[in-house]
Amino acid sequence: MHAKVVATPAPSFAMNGAVYEAIHRIEYPNKDAVWKQVVQMGRRYEKQFPTYKFVPRGGLSSPHVKYMTDIDFIFNCSQHGRVGIMDFDTLEALARQLCHNQVLSAKVAWQDDDLFDEDVTDLQAVRDLVASHEADVVVITGRYELKNGWQVPMDFTLQRGESKMPKAKRMARIQANLEEGNFAKVVSRIRSLLTPAKKGTFASEWNEVGGALRFLAKQLELVTRLPQKDQVSYMPYLCLPADLSAKEWCQVANKEMQAEAVRVLVKTKDLTGPVLGEQKEAIFALLDAAMEALSQEPSQSKSDGYPSHAGDESGVDQSRGTRQRGKFLPETSADATTETLTDLGSEAALDKQACSNSGGGCASGRWGDNASASSTGKASSGSQGQPSRGQAAGAERGRGGGSSGGGRRAGRGGSSGPRQQSD
After folding, report:
1. Residue 246: which residues within 8 A CB-CB, separation 6 or more?
2. Sorting pLDDT into bands at 50, 70 and 90, what band is 31?
3. CA dist 389 to 4, 126, 342, Å?
């Protein structure tokens, strides 16, 4: 078994520097405020699935994950069996409702074997598969949009059976992630195996740089799935120059993220070794080989011009305040805003709280003038009924939906089954 280090053209130091500058300048969505509202939504919507319970899982739920990269909306039935077609129909209706019909992908599995994992907007073929085959996991991914304009992948999952991943299965997936070169996913899988005290230490090594790079990489993967006009209007949120397309920036950010993951995994061997058991030596050998391969490539390290965060846990620089609805405002608590919103649908509170901490403020107008962003993969069905995001970040608007991450979606690491809780 060999760890795969993806061979991509070496980015210039200027490109790397732009990525590190961007993760310092981005005004990140308020993870804690979004999570509180997601839990409320989950408790409310689980009533639509009589035999299922909402399960708080994923990075959004973890205190050891600093940045929000996606939303896991998991409904679990502890009794193993087959997902019923009526429950599938309810799940699809919910995904389309909350994501304003912007569905981009779906996944169907039975006992860890993927039956379907593709980019898709029309779910009829997926429905037919669920109706005609045994399936204990169904995932519909949508592109959920907060009111301040940030978009995030949201996985709507029905799961029958054990809701937590056994250690043996997690170790097998660590091996698979190493083989495919997805070291960032290995970080999250190993973190979940650690004791609470060690999780904190391990997370502190990863979050400040690696976690921020993962946020940027996941966002760029999402952007490449948008229609080109939406790519141009969204890219200013990510504080990157218009020199490259979203696809090219995605490659640069992903390369830096994976390199940082290798660095962290090698640095924390003493911390992680005890939980890896008899597979420790094989895993460490793969990491050493990956580190050696990376050392042969020119790369931008944290010390090469990366400015440390001056902000709080949300990633917002307190000295600059918060950009909200196109304005700079003094930093305030997410609970300080009490304005009643009556025209934004049932999840207005989620949008309102997320808005209070971030407006996505790096808009400059240059992307609208000369960006070369190009759409890759299977495009979404568009942005019907949604006004385009203006050049000014954090503009007043409602949510859209849709999803990133479709077939072989970002963050899945090639694994089957639903995304499991990291911690």
Report:
1. 220, 223, 224, 231, 235, 373, 374
2. very high
3. 38, 31, 21
- Say which residues have a Cβ less than 8 Å from residue 216's Cβ, sequence separation at least 6: 19, 22, 23, 26, 238, 253, 257
Token digits of residue 231: 């790519």
Nearest alpha carbon to residue 4 among 251, 289, 359, 238: 289
Q: Which amino acid is at 320?
A: R
The answer to whether residues 386 and 101 touch, using CB atoms and an 8 Å cutoff, is no
What the block records as the tokens of 57 is: 């899982």
3-state SS of the chain is CCCCCCCCCCCCHHHHHHHHHHHHHCCCCCHHHHHHHHHHHHHHHHHHCCCCEEECCCHHHCCCCCCCCCEEEEEEECCCCCCCHHHHHHHHHHHHHHCCCCEEEEEEEECCEEEEEEECCCCHHHHHHHHHCCCCEEEEEEEEECCCCCEEEEEEEEEECCCCCCHHHHHHHHHHHHHHCCHHHHHHHHHHHCCHHHHHHHHHHHHHHHHHHHHHHHHHHHHCCCCHHHHHHHHHHHCCCCCCCHHHHHHHHHHHHHHHHHHHHHHCHHHHHHHHHHHHHHHHHHHHHHHHHHHCCCCCCCCCCCCCCCCCCCCCCHHHCEEECCEEECCCCCCCCCCCCCCCCCCHHHHHHHHCCCCCCCCCCHHHHHCCCCCCCCCCCCCCCCCCCCCCCCCCCCCCCCCCCCCCCCCCCCCCCCCCCCC
361 vs 313: CA distance, rounded Å = 17
Compute the average pLDDT of residues 405-420.
Answer: 39
Q: Which residues pair with 140 in a beta bridge?
A: 106, 156
Question: Hey, which residues does 112 pair with through a beta bridge?
Answer: none
Q: Measured between alpha carbons, how far is 332 from 318 in angstroms, rounded to an integer?
A: 10
Q: Rg of the chain's alpha carbons, rounded to an integer? A: 20
If we measure between CA atoms, which residue out of 149, 132, 292 comes closest to residue 219?
A: 149
Structure tokens at 290: 């990956």
- Count of CB atoms situated within 10 Å of the CB of 340: 7
- Look at residue 297 in the predicted model and tell me its pLDDT: 75
Q: Mind listing the pLDDT tens digit for each residue in 290-330?
A: 999 988 876 544 434 444 433 333 333 333 333 332 222 23
Looking only at the bridges linking them, the beta strands covering 71-77 and 151-160 are parallel
pLDDT at 188 over 70: yes
Rounded to whole angstroms, the Cα distance separating 122 from 194 reads 40
